[in-house]
Amino acid sequence: MTYILIDSPITYYPFPKLANMTAKIATISLLFTLVTLAVSNTALKNLWDFFLNDISSLEKPTSDLTIFPTQTKNEKEKNSMQAIVGNSSALEKLAGEFEFIEGPIWHPDGFLLFSDIPADTIYKLTSNRQVEVFRRPSGKANGNTLDKAGRLITAEHSNRRISRTEKDGKIIALADKYEGKRLNSPNDLVVKSDGSIYFTDPSYGVSKEQEELGFYGVYRLAVDGKLTLLVKDIVLPNGIAFSPDEKKLYVNNSEAGYIGIFDVTSDGTVSDRRVFAELKDSSKSGVPDGLKVDVEGNVYSTGPGGVWIFSPSGQLLGKISVPETATNLAWGDRDYKTLYITTSKSLYRMRLKIAGVRSGK
Questions:
Q1: Burial bucket for residue 41 (CB in 10 Å: 0-12, 13-18, 19+)
Q2: What is the DSSP letter of 77?
Q3: Which of 1, 171, 255, 311 is the most buried if burial means most Cβ atoms within 10 Å?
Q4: Which of 271, 197, 177, 192 is closest to 231 using CA atoms?
Q5: Other CB atoms closer than 10 Å to residue 28's CB: what's the count?
Q6: Element housing 48 (H / E)
């Protein structure tokens, strides 16, 4: 476990009575050393507690950059937490004080985009860790991804549509109705290598009175604009991702608490639905929400307590503990080995040892 010390004015703490002169001299010498080093108030208190109490009594400081421990599992095979995370990996907090953030996506130009749904804003995290407004209003954007041309594809809650942002900044509606009825509230999406867009359409962004379809679907939007309903009987479909070979489609069922898996047929439709893995822990907050896959086929999903990681066969390899309710995740940085995690109020990241599948490729 790593601690970060926060600078603040030095405060002196009273000494307890010591049994003999030798102890007094040693104690005074220790105090002199600490003062001459001009350590911070927090650092001095932590060191003093260390000598007077057990190490477990140390308070964990906070700052803009906070390091958290990671749970790992030592296994030899490549589909293991040790192969994915390693003992030196740590979770890093990048920014906070948002309303409710979602939909992170890494842009190849070197920045991260993510949505704050209640704030009606898409934010941009620059390479120097500055947060800027990318778009406001955003149609209460939720999920974001990129197409094969590198254009931003967004699931917009309040506009109830899938949109594309052109290179010149113009926003085009790609889909907002199915068989003449408005979509519910497009949530998350993924682009297949043939250019088609797969997305989920639960009801999180609309009231029951606003619903027109009467079901919550998973759709495929072809390059020619044809919208095909793939599944209509999932209770609140959410995160969505392909296996690296695109032969499997994963869909999170937030209400039922599991990841569903489908076979992808040659015409782009899906078949043979089954449960891939369950994510249930009533002692922690969070549900199966955002979903991503790495190049080895390991599946990463937000869930109770943080990010759950499964092997391609559905074996739970381990979890990344996150101090807030995790909502979504995305691969990023030049090598796509950094996992960016959105939570209810904050943005985090962690360096991993296996790269993720790139958006739109």
A1: middle
A2: S
A3: 311
A4: 271
A5: 12
A6: helix 41-52
Q: Which of 76, 6, 14 is nearest to 43 (CA)?
A: 6
User: In a 3-state reduction of DSSP, which class is residue 230?
Assistant: strand
pTM of the model: 0.80
Q: What is the pLDDT of residues 89-114, one digit of tens each?
A: 899 999 999 999 999 999 999 999 99
Mean pLDDT of the region 217-242: 96
Q: How far apart are CA 231 and CA 290, in angstroms?
A: 18
User: Which residue matches tokens 């999406």?
Assistant: 189
pLDDT of residue 122: 98
- The neighbouring-strand residues paired with 266 are none
Residues 6+ apart with CB under 8 A from 50: 58
Contact of 104 with 329, CB cutoff 8 Å: yes
Residues with Cβ within 8 Å of residue 173, at least 6 apart in sequence: 159, 161, 162, 163
181, two tokens: 């009825």
**Residue whose C-alpha is closest to residue 306's, from 282, 336, 285:** 285
In whole angstroms, give the CA distance from residue 185 to residue 173. Answer: 14
Q: Which amino acid type is present at position 148?
A: K
Structure tokens at 137: 């209003």
Distance (Å) of CA 299 to CA 97, 148, 225, 313: 29, 22, 29, 9
Q: Is 164 helix (H, G, I), strand (E, B) or coil?
A: strand
| CA distance to 13, 37, 46, 50, per residue, from 24 (Å) | 15, 20, 20, 18
Q: Is 143 helix (H, G, I), strand (E, B) or coil?
A: strand
CB 249, CB 265: distance < 8 Å: no
